[in-house]
Design a protein that fits this description.
Growth Hormone, Chain: A; about 80% helix; cell membrane; Sugar_transporter_CS; Sugar/inositol_transpt; sugar transport; transmembrane
């Protein structure tokens, strides 16, 4: 996280001081490198340090900061220029650089590499001075000892039958998160507003503000109803949001109910963004951080990141072409993918609520048999 934070700071400063396109590109590349890896590193770290009864909520809050930050950036960016926005973006990165001095290393990672005293000290610090950690420490040690009997698998080793279910779930969630249409909305929001005849500033405010209570609600509900249920509700909401957005463009093309078209389009975007913030934005990363055993976390994370960002690029690259073909059809395609995603979650995604990482991984693999 220290290394990645340096890339963030360098990226924002490169953008701020840019005099030409090459430095802007370099800044975006640096930010993309840091953000792409943080999406897996942060939830993995949080899943390894938090107790099972609050793991989902805490990780969800962390990942939910992404859409919150996007919303804040939309709002601030509507009243200041982009150089000032880049400089503001560097401030939380500097705070993180300082804050990392005060957080312990992952106890499970310390146990894996044999630093037993540091492992117990880190776990005690995380749980509190007066908490008895003996049972939890013993479970982690037993699991780590069993897992260390198996050599650490490389990326190609993941394509074995024993990992097939985990890999299908992980890659499926990454594809669903992006092909639901998020980056079509996020990267081209201004263009969508123009197509529907909505003022940009009004649209940004209407779409951004409801995301914050949705994020808070999702963080509360994730431990009450579980990952699968909240995911299915979230993806169903995305499907509805895409349908409403697509329907607004159908009415616009037919010159029907024209006075209501902007309101319908805004409603669809709000439903989509709120639904995304409720679960699909954060829960896939939470599940991925929970289901993979420690000996394949690195390799699995590399594949998941690669798939996620390839899908991000694909959606971003194709969006303009799809909209030129048919604005309504574009959002109906995204909605159809979300509908299929509900079936995928119902059939294949495991529920991980209320179980330790060791219990989850033992139930999904054959390592402890």
């Amino acid at each position: 996280m220290w290394i990645l934070d340096i890339f963030y700071i360098m990226g924002w400063l490169a953008i701020y001081f840019a005099k030409g396109a090459w430095l802007l590109d370099l800044g975006r590349l640096s930010l993309g490198f840091g953000y792409g890896l943080t999406c897996y590193v942060a939830p993995t770290y949080l899943s390894e340090i938090t107790p099972k009864n609050v793991r989902g909520g805490i990780t969800s809050v962390s990942m939910a900061m992404i859409p919150v930050s996007v919303s804040v950036a939309y709002l601030i960016g509507s009243v200041i220029n982009w150089r000032a926005l880049a400089l503001i973006g560097a401030i939380p990165c500097l705070l993180l650089l300082f804050g990392l001095f005060f957080i312990p290393e992952s106890p499970r990672w310390l146990a894996k590499i044999g630093r037993e005293k540091e492992f117990e000290a880190a776990l005690q610090r995380l749980r509190g001075k007066n908490v008895n950690i003996s049972e939890e420490a013993a479970d982690i040690k037993d699991y780590t000892e069993n897992i260390q009997k198996i050599p650490e698998d490389k990326i190609l080793d993941l394509f074995q039958q024993k990992y097939s279910h985990l890999l299908i779930v992980a890659i499926g969630l990454m594809v669903l998160q992006q092909f639901g249409g998020l980056n079509g909305y996020a990267y081209y929001m201004n263009e969508i507003f123009e197509l529907a005849g909505v003022p940009s500033i009004t649209g940004f405010i209407v779409v951004s503000v409801p995301q914050i209570p949705a994020i808070a609600l999702g963080s509360i509900l994730i431990e009450k109803f579980g990952r699968r249920t909240l995911l299915m509700v979230s993806v169903t909401g995305e499907c509805l949001g895409c349908f409403l957005t697509g329907l607004s463009f159908v009415l616009q093309n037919l010159n029907w109910w024209m006075e209501a078209t902007p309101t319908l389009m805004l409603s669809g975007m709000v439903v989509f963004e709120v639904s995304y913030s409720l679960g699909i934005g954060s829960i896939p990363w939470i599940i991925i951080s929970e289901i993979f055993p420690i000996n394949i976390k690195g390799s699995a994370g590399s594949i998941c990141n690669a798939v996620n960002w390839f899908c991000t690029w694909l959606v971003s690259f194709t969006f303009n072409f799809l909209v030129e073909w048919s604005p309504a059809g574009t959002f109906f395609i995204y909605g159809s993918i979300s509908f299929l995603g509900v079936l995928f979650i119902a059939k294949l995604v495991p529920e991980t609520k209320g179980r330790t990482l060791e219990e989850i991984q033992a139930s999904l693999t054959h390592f402890l048999q």
